[in-house]
């Protein structure tokens, strides 16, 4: 931020110095010189005012954009949490069924093993 300010100050000061040098080195009458100096100072004031306004507008836009981004991230996080919870609730009954089926399979395997042992004896 400090670099940006010093850059703007450098442009403004350089512009003023170059404008003054150009005005003073031109061969013209005092009246013309004063008139052009007034015109140039008005133009520079307008330009500085516009730069200041644009800078403030840019600062406000960046602030609004960051606030919107934070709100979007918050909303997205909440939606993701809800989706995960919904998925867990959907999967949970199936997990219980799978465990039941696995227990039934184990029981059936044990029964088969016992039958095979009994038949072999």
UniProtKB/TrEMBL annotation:
Transmembrane segments: 6-26
InterPro entries in UniProt: Desiccation-related_membrane (IPR052928), YtxH (IPR024623)
Domain of life: Bacteria
Signal peptide location: none
Keyword Aminoacyl-tRNA synthetase annotated: no
Species this protein is from: Virgibacillus phasianinus
Name of protein: Gas vesicle protein
Pfam families named in the record: YtxH
Keywords on record: Membrane, Transmembrane, Transmembrane helix
């Amino acid at each position: 931020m400090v670099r940006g300010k010093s850059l703007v100050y450098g442009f403004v000061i350089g512009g003023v110095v170059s404008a003054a040098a150009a005005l003073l080195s031109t061969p013209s009458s005092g009246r013309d010189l004063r008139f052009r100096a007034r015109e140039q100072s008005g133009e520079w004031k307008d330009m500085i005012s516009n730069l200041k306004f644009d800078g403030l507008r840019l600062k406000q836009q960046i602030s609004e954009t960051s606030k919107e981004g934070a709100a979007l991230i918050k909303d997205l996080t909440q939606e993701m949490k809800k989706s995960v919870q919904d998925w867990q609730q959907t999967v949970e009954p199936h997990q219980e069924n799978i465990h039941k089926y696995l227990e039934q399979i184990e029981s059936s395997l044990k029964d088969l093993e016992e039958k095979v042992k009994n038949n072999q004896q």
